[in-house]
Specification:
Blueprint lengths: L1 H21 L2 E4 L2 E5 L3 E6 L4 E10 L3 E12 L2 E13 L14 E4 L2 E10 L2 H7 L4 H11 L8 E9 L6 E10 L9 H7 L1 E4 L1
Antiparallel strand pairs: 1-2, 2-3, 3-11, 4-5, 5-6, 6-10, 7-8, 8-9, 9-10
Length: 197
C-alpha cells in the first residue's frame, strides 16, 4: 500500500513538473517571456513589480491568462500593466475582429489602441461581474491589493494567428481623477516597457 501511495505521489509530481516545463509563458524578475500566441518578450520598468498571474475560462467561450505588473504604495495600486492572452475554446466557432481605427506600432507590429476614463471603478465592476476585468480585480484584491477608485487605461490589442482565434491584450492603467489624464497616456505606457529580441 505504501508503494502504491508513493507511486501516485511521484506521478502527480511528475505531471506538475511537466506542466511547469511545458508552460508557454514565464516571468523572471520584470521580464515576461511568451513562446507562442504571441511569441514575445517584454521587460517592464523597475518600478513595476510582478504581482502574479492566473488563468480561467471567460464566459464559457475562451481561455484567458492574465499577468500583472504593478506600482503600489502600501498595497494601493497607483499604476499597472495587465497582459491578457486569450483564445477561443475548440468548441466555439468564432473569430476576433477589430474595427478600431487607431493603431500604435511597437516591437515592429501594429496594435489597435484606445484610451478610456473610468470615473467609478467599483460601479463599473458591478456592471460586468463575470468579465475578464472583474476577474482581474478579484485576483488582485485576493492578493491584498487595494484598487483605484477612478482610473484611465490605454489598451493595446492584436490578433496573433491567421485563424483569428487568439488575441493578445495589454492594458496600461493609471489612477486618475478626470479625462485629462488620457492626454499622452500611450506615451507614458510605452516609456515603461520595452520589447526584447
Amino acid at each position: 500500500m505504501k508503494t502504491f501511495s508513493k507511486l501516485v505521489i511521484f506521478i502527480l509530481l511528475l505531471g506538475s513538473f511537466s506542466f511547469a516545463q511545458n508552460s508557454t509563458r514565464q516571468v523572471e524578475d520584470r521580464i515576461l517571456n511568451s513562446s507562442d500566441l504571441p511569441k514575445i518578450r517584454l521587460k517592464f520598468n523597475k518600478k513595476f513589480k510582478f504581482a502574479g498571474s492566473h488563468e480561467f475560462v471567460l464566459y464559457d467561450r475562451a481561455k484567458a491568462e492574465q499577468y500583472f505588473f504593478v506600482v503600489a504604495e502600501d498595497k494601493k495600486i497607483k499604476r499597472m500593466f495587465m497582459l491578457q492572452f486569450e483564445g477561443f475554446l475548440p468548441k466555439i466557432d468564432a473569430k476576433y475582429e477589430y474595427n478600431e481605427p487607431n493603431t500604435i506600432d511597437f516591437g515592429g507590429l501594429k496594435y489597435f489602441s484606445n484610451a478610456e476614463f473610468i470615473p467609478n471603478v467599483e460601479q463599473a465592476l458591478k456592471a460586468v461581474p463575470d468579465s475578464d476585468i472583474a476577474r482581474a480585480a478579484k485576483f488582485l484584491q485576493d492578493k491584498g491589493f487595494t484598487l483605484m477608485k477612478s482610473l484611465v487605461f490605454q489598451r493595446f490589442v492584436r490578433v496573433v494567428d491567421e485563424s483569428k482565434r487568439n488575441e493578445f491584450i495589454m492594458l496600461y492603467i493609471e489612477e486618475a481623477k478626470d479625462e485629462k489624464a488620457k492626454e499622452n497616456l500611450s506615451e507614458r505606457a510605452l516609456e515603461n516597457f520595452k520589447v526584447l529580441k
